[in-house]
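Quick question, first post here. What does this chain look like in 3D?
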Amino acid sequence: MDDVRLGELSLGEIDTVQLLTPTGVRLSDVRYDAWVSDIGDDQLLSLYEDMVVVRRIDTEATALQRQGELGLWPPLLGQEASQIGSGRALRSDDFVFSSYRENGVAYCRGAGLTDLVRVWRGTAQSGWNPYDINMATPQVIIGAQTLHATGYALGIQADGTDAVAVAYFGDGATSEGDVNEAMIFAATYSAPVIFFCQNNQWAISEPVALQAQRPIAERAPGFGIPSVRVDGNDVLAVLAVTRAALDRARAGGGPTFIEAVTYRMGPHTTADDPTRYRDPAELEKWKGRDPIARVEACLAAAGILTPENAEAVASTADRVAAELRAGCVALPDPDPMTVFDNVYAEAHTGITRQRDHYSRYLRTFVGGDGR
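> Answer (accepted):
Ran it through. Tokens below.
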């Protein structure tokens, strides 16, 4: 992978795993080839479809926010390979703890399309039941999910199963105490957890060079955790390194830290304007490393991406986007009293008192129910 220089930090100073170049050329790596030896033409086409569909979901949700149907949306544009490659490596009994941007991972886990937007429309406190898809509610508190993942991994260890917990977070989260504390616990107890850092180069408006004077993957070995740095725009490489890390955890080898070097091509959220802090030339350079374009080039060169296949993929993406939109606009407003649901697992006197106060407050409005 070419060096990517931001400020004074060279992000090409350590080895970066790459199996598919930006122009779609398949590379060989003796360390990781075996981990994707089962990925033939059909499987690669399926990964391509996943990325196209997830990008279409993302662009549709962004449009819904711009049209006033969602209050906010955190785009993943440019990070499709990191999310699909890692998400498709997981088993159904593995458990994911993510930030708010991993909608591609949620798609892989089986989240319903409407479930992806419930929270952002403001009609629910959670899009899905975590135990239905083995993925926790996305975490907005930066880095907190790493502690949750490590704790869950210790539970897996106590149960004696070979499932794995996976924590997704961004480069900015690595400056948080929670992430460092989680790695200390994980290393100390050899917890079966993967720390998956999507280094998308920007923590809101702060470039990675301001908080990381060395590649982020170099931090984990200081905690006693092996790390790997992968081209996060290469879906095959991400799939390979994630599979290897999962296998290590299942065999009792403990945690692994993965730094997926990718790029946030859109805003941090739809409330952000990246043109205020980002050089347009930087964006153009990363567009040349587009994760979907490189797979498309590889498939086209091999004669796999026929016009019929391309049309089928596009049709699937459009159908999914239409389903997402229809589900979003059809979401009913919640009953105001449901704000107290699921705050505690069992009845709590404090909540009971608050429910009573809020109910009386609502009765002061016309209609008596707050509507």
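Confidence is low (pLDDT under 50) at residues 1-12.
The two ends are 57 Å apart (CA to CA).
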